[in-house]
């Protein structure tokens, strides 16, 4: 019986095995880019699988979103006139608030039963864990947005399904989740965990929310795409900078 | 416990003298601005404190990188000192700005890019201290603090740029003219003297406070060490 | 198989491990004993590459930590007192997830094999959060041996288990060890350790205070040996 782990060196492994498995299974190359993508996929798969069974994270975000919209409705007196100008703001405030719920929950699941250690024990690069959680969190966020948008459209008789607006929502969510995943990983490891995340997140994600509100507002106000291109460029810049920064800094917040 | 170095003692005295000298220049020597009147005198200290606070924040981001590379807690103590002193100076900047804004813009506060960014920067560094408070392990506290300070330092300029999407009313004094800004003014000779002297004075005062605060951090560290020894 | 030289681990000012030396030969089952707070868990976390040594050399299966951590991790199975499992996934899904993280191909075969070994084949499609503590711990061992590691680390695996569950866990641990693996287990339960281990090391005040093989201890007894080692 011979087992090889393809990482450049062969191990001296001449143990007596009780289980006879005749090379039925094997361990594939540990460092290639294909396995990098596969491991990220594994994390996303297990997050979505668990969520589609319990629905606790998405349903909490969703109910919370609807409550926020309800509160805004009466706090701002969303009649036809005001609605025009504040829709973008209401939407993004809702996403930002609901997002912290999701991020907190998603990272608490990893922390509570020691699963974060389980992830760190796997022979994969730390960035796999960051990107895995990032894509899971982004998926939760987009699912919630995909439900809130039509509901909002029906409630206020507007059509939010415009390609430009959807692009802005995608870019904004990417920026929000990229930094949110990093900060949530940090906040769940502190004593003050849940209350800390919004305090850490909102001041640094302010630029994303602002640019997203500006771009969404412009598009809803029948501006052309060129009019809001400045905001969109800013969103793209932010996304790139903060994905890169989180990628580089993630190591420092999971290793002791 | 090592005694206060002589250089620092001298620097303490120099700082106090410079503070009074800067105040004298700003209040007595500099002429009264024609349009705004005496309230414009606040401006010398306003820019002076802002200048050192901003340098402090940039320095903080640099210290984050140094700590994350070296993992030496000494840099963490220096970072805490830098953030703390800068936060206080920046708060002073904001308050002085408000005092000036009331007669100049007819409001204490306005959501102009600089003011908003200033408010957000203060919030970032307050969050920095809240984060640190929630962590017991000193290494972890230092690592998380460094990461957050770096993220904050990266986001602040982007935030400033983003708010520029709105129009600004903050005057640009040093370079470039902004037609929309309210309260622009040009500086005469004595004003310039007071202005640059204030910059210099606050730089020295900042260095002095920063140094003292680092020493305080070292003492805290020493106390912890002694406590630990006593508990064995 | 495991070689630790002059290992020092500090948390801020607190030094937990003070120049610890530790050797394990292939196939040995070492019980690492010691009072709470002696640094057992800290030490195991360093071996597991979850924590970086402050000073000293750690070599596992010929690979140095922390630089060659990925290679070490591929050869290491870890069981802690936390299950490291997802409650909202079934046993099978949990194992499939970890199989993918370890890059195991034809994982279905291996998962069945492991589930049979820990005696949970009949509940493979049940959610892990419906499992008893003992079953979760057995599945945790299944997770740890999934990639057929040469070295196993157990950190207080008996925490929170009742008598029956302990007995079942004994069986599983014996099976795992009997497959020729090198095992390091921390415990404060001397009776359990006595039953399983081939060597007993006592960790006290951050160093190995005493070490004896099973044969040496048989003459006196483990409790006596443990007390003597702690008394120093």
Describe it:
The complex is a heterotrimer of chains A (256), B (232) and C (232). Helix content of chain A is 75%, strand content 1%. Chain A is mostly helical. Chain B is mostly helical. Chain B has one domain (7-231). Chain C has 232 residues and is an alpha/beta fold. In chain C, the strands form two sheets. A six-stranded mixed sheet of chain C has the order 6-8-9-3-10-11, with helices on both faces. Chain C has a four-stranded antiparallel sheet with strand order 2-1-4-5. Chain C is globular and about 50 Å long. The model of chain C has no long low-confidence stretch (mean pLDDT 88).
Which helices and strands occur, and which strands form pairs?
The complex is a heterotrimer of chains A (256), B (232) and C (232).
Chain A: E1 26-27, H1 33-54, H2 56-75, H3 80-112, H4 115-121, H5 126-156, H6 163-187, H7 193-220, H8 229-254
Helix pairs in contact in A: 1-5, 2-3, 2-5, 3-5, 3-6, 3-7, 5-6, 5-8, 6-7, 6-8, 7-8
Chain B: H1 6-29, H2 42-70, H3 73-105, H4 113-133, H5 138-163, H6 189-231
Chain C: E1 2-11, E2 14-24, E3 29-33, H1 40-47, E4 55-60, E5 63-65, H2 69-74, E6 76-79, H3 91-101, E7 104-105, H4 107-117, H5 133-145, E8 151-155, H6 163-178, E9 182-187, H7 190-196, E10 199-204, E11 207-213, H8 214-219, H9 222-231
Parallel strand pairs in C: 3-9, 3-10, 6-8, 8-9
Antiparallel strand pairs in C: 1-2, 1-4, 4-5, 10-11
* Run of helices and strands of chain B: HHHHHH
Residue runs with pLDDT of under 50 for 5 or more positions of chain A: 1-21
Q: How many whole angstroms does the radius of gyration of chain A measure? A: 22 Å
Q: What is the CA–CA distance across the termini of chain B?
A: 21 Å
As for the number of domains of chain A, it is 1
Mean pLDDT of chain B: 87
Largest chain-chain contact? A-C, 49 and 51 residues
Give the DSSP E fraction of chain B (strand runs of 2 or more residues).
Answer: under 5%
Query: What is the structural class of chain A?
Result: mainly alpha
Question: What is the percent of helical residues of chain B?
Answer: over 70%
Major sheet of chain B, described briefly? none
| Percentage of β-strand residues of chain A | under 5%
What features would you highlight for this structure?
heterotrimer, A: 256 residues, mainly alpha, C: alpha/beta, Rossmann fold, 6-stranded mixed beta sheet, 4-stranded antiparallel beta sheet
């Amino acid at each position: 019986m011979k087992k090889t782990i393809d990482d450049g060196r062969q191990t001296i492994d001449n143990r007596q095995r009780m289980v006879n498995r005749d090379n039925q299974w094997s361990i594939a190359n540990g460092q290639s880019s294909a396995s990098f993508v596969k491991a990220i996929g594994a994390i996303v798969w297990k997050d979505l699988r668990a969520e589609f069974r319990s629905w606790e994270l998405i349903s909490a975000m969703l109910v919370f979103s609807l409550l926020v919209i309800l509160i805004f409705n009466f706090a701002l007196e969303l009649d036809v006139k005001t609605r025009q100008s504040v829709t973008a703001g209401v939407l993004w405030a809702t996403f930002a608030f609901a997002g912290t719920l999701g991020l907190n929950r998603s990272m608490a699941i990893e922390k509570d039963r020691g699963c974060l250690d389980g992830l760190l024990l796997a022979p994969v690069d730390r960035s796999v864990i960051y990107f895995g959680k990032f894509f899971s969190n982004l998926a939760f966020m987009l699912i919630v947005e995909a439900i809130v948008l039509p509901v909002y459209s029906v409630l206020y008789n507007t059509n939010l399904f415009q390609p430009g607006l959807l692009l802005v929502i995608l870019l904004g969510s990417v920026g929000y989740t990229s930094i949110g995943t990093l900060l949530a990983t940090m906040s769940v490891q502190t004593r003050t965990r849940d209350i800390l995340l919004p305090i850490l997140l909102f001041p640094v994600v302010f630029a994303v929310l602002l640019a997203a509100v500006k771009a969404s507002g412009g598009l809803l106000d029948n501006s052309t795409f060129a009019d809001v291109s400045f905001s969109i460029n800013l969103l793209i810049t932010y996304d790139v900078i903060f994905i890169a920064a989180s990628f580089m800094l993630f190591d420092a917040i999971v290793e002791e | 416990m090592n005694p206060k170095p002589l250089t620092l003692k001298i620097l303490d005295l120099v700082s106090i003298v410079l503070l009074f000298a800067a105040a004298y220049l700003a209040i007595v020597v500099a002429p009264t601005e024609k349009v705004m009147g005496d309230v414009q005198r606040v401006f010398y200290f306003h820019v002076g404190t802002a200048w050192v606070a901003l340098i402090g924040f940039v320095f903080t981001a640099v210290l984050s990188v140094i700590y994350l590379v070296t993992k030496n807690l000494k840099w963490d103590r220096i970072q805490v000192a830098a953030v703390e002193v800068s936060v206080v100076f920046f708060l002073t900047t904001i308050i002085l700005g408000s005092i000036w804004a009331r007669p100049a813009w007819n409001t204490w506060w306005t959501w102009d890019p600089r003011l908003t960014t200033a408010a957000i920067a203060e919030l970032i560094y307050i969050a920095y201290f809240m984060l640190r408070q929630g962590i017991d392990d000193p290494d972890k506290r230092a690592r998380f603090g460094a990461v957050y300070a770096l993220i904050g330092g990266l986001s602040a300029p982007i935030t400033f740029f983003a708010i520029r999407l709105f129009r600004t009313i903050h005057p640009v004094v040093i370079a470039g003219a902004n037609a929309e800004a309210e309260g622009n003014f040009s500086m005469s000779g004595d004003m310039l003297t007071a202005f640059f002297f204030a910059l210099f004075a606050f730089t020295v005062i900042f260095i002095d406070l920063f140094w003292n605060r680092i020493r305080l951090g070292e003492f805290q560290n020493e106390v912890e060490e002694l406590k630990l020894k006593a508990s064995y | 198989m495991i070689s630790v030289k002059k290992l020092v681990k500090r948390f801020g000012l607190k030094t937990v491990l003070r120049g610890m030396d530790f050797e394990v030969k292939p196939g040995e089952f070492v019980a690492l004993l010691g009072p709470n707070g002696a640094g057992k868990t800290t030490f195991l976390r360093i071996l597991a590459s979850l924590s970086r040594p402050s000073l000293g050399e750690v070599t596992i299966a010929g690979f140095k930590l922390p630089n060659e951590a990925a290679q070490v991790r591929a050869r290491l199975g870890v069981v802690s007192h936390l299950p490291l499992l997802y409650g909202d996934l079934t046993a099978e899904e949990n194992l499939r997830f970890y199989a993918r993280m370890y890059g195991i191909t034809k994982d279905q075969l291996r998962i069945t094999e492991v589930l049979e070994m820990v005696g949970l084949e009949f509940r493979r499609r049940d959610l892990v959060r419906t499992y008893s503590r003992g079953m979760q711990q057995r599945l945790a061992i299944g997770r740890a041996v999934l990639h057929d590691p040469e070295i196993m680390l157990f950190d207080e695996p008996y925490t929170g288990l009742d008598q029956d569950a302990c007995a079942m866990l004994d069986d599983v641990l014996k099976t795992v060890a009997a497959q020729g693996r090198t095992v390091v287990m921390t415990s404060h339960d001397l009776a359990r350790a006595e039953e399983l281990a081939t060597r007993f090391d006592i960790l006290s005040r951050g160093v190995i205070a005493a070490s004896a093989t099973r044969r040496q201890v048989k003459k006196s007894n483990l409790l006596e040996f443990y007390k003597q080692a702690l008394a120093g």
